[in-house]
Specification:
Tetracycline Repressor, domain 2; elongated; single chain
């Protein structure tokens, strides 16, 4: 493994355990088996190291999404959303270091949070465009704005994803065990989205 990759791997472990503020570049260098100065040679500062670690973590998830989408061309929007939610949970259970690292985004200093959110928007825009193509094929009520409905659904599932990440942080085996229960919850949420919560 090249030095830069070793540093990123060690950084993910350190940030996952201690968050951005608590993470130590000394510990990252020690774990990576490199001199601390090499970290700053490759990444300039701790902030940029975090951002590059974030990109690495998210890119592994993006690759999973692209593979999944390529195999899901015939599925409708709700089927795609449900199955991707399941695949994402499977991925997080199999890669706990990635899921624990993603949670550190919730406790970033404000300036770092803004930088990460800018990266999130770049990465998500492509994925959302793919999902929106499927969404546009749905037979929506005529009085609804498709853009607003789509944003609501995506925000809901992103929020649920964050909730499950927090709930199962450091517990990949429990996440694997509870996946079926979570999928049933997702089924119910999809039914609510499709049919509402009130009797006519």
């Amino acid at each position: 493994m090249e030095k830069k990759e070793r540093i990123l791997k060690a950084a993910m472990e350190e940030f996952s355990k201690k968050g951005f503020s608590g993470a130590s570049t000394n510990e990252i260098a020690k774990e990576a088996g490199t001199a601390k100065g090499l970290i700053f040679h490759y990444f300039k500062d701790k902030e940029n190291l975090y951002l590059e670690t974030y990109k690495k973590a998210v890119n592994t998830l993006v690759e999973e999404f692209e593979t999944f989408i390529a195999m899901s061309k015939e599925k409708n929007f709700f089927e795609t959303l449900k199955e991707w939610s399941y695949k994402k949970l499977e991925f997080m259970a199999e890669n706990p270091e990635v899921s624990d690292f993603m949670l550190t985004m919730l406790n970033l200093p404000k300036d770092m949070e803004n930088q990460v959110l800018a990266e999130v928007k770049k990465i998500q825009s492509k994925n959302w465009a793919i999902l929106f193509e499927k969404f546009q094929l749905l037979n929506l009520r005529k009085d609804l704005d498709p853009q607003i409905v789509f944003k609501f659904i995506i925000a809901l599932f992103n929020g649920l994803g964050d909730m499950y990440l927090e709930l199962y942080k450091g517990k990949p085996e429990k996440l694997k065990k509870d996946t079926e229960k979570i999928v049933k919850e997702a089924d119910m949420i999809l039914e609510i989205l499709k049919h509402g919560i009130l009797l006519d």
